[in-house]
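thread: overnight batch results

M.L. [08:02]
morning all. the overnight job finished for the chain we discussed friday. pasting input first so we're all looking at the same thing
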Amino acid sequence: QFLMANKLDTAMWISRLFTVYCSALFVLPLLGLHEAASFYQRALLANALTSALRLHQRLPHFQLSRAFLAQALLEDSCHYLLYSLIFVNSYPVTMSIFPVLLFSLLHAATYTKKVLDARSSNSLPFLRNLLEKLNANQQNILKFIACNEIFLMPATVFMLFSGQGSLLQPFIYYRFLTLRYSSRRNPYCRTLFTELRIVVEHLIMKPSCPVFVRRLCLSGISFISRLAPTVA
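M.L. [08:03]
and the structure it wrote out:
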């Protein structure tokens, strides 16, 4: 009754579980490397479906207007719909599947707990314990996802020069990264950029750091800071 009363949430729960399943079989290619590539695409397509459903839930009345598009781009679900479309037809990159896997796992775990609560307050204690441990590590998981989002930017450039990526991919991914940096719901990308800057500045200001390395890093920090969008 609980699942039928919340059909859209249940559909997203199932698609997230399927995303976790496909992502796991890509990261751990138990069925062979050829099959792993197909699971990579399935995971991203399932994530695109989940993101589209979530976006529909947040903005149920679609309008073909600039205002609606601007509002949609503020939603994290729109960000990851774009993310899935960026990588679904690209060369499989293990780093790119982790945000999809971990976000799906976190959201699926939250809804699984609701399903267990609807069934019985004491049902499946072992599973409940696993879900509690996952929830306790949520902050570290979100930081790890943000780290993946950031370091995928140079990875897309490297893929371009190695012949495994398209010319447009780095530019589209840069747009995705600016959306993540400006996210209202998830500040971890912005926070991690700040933390990385502090760590790098601390290291290069040590007397043992060569002058040319310090200048190179400061130039890089200045360049990245200019590219960062203004956050309200």
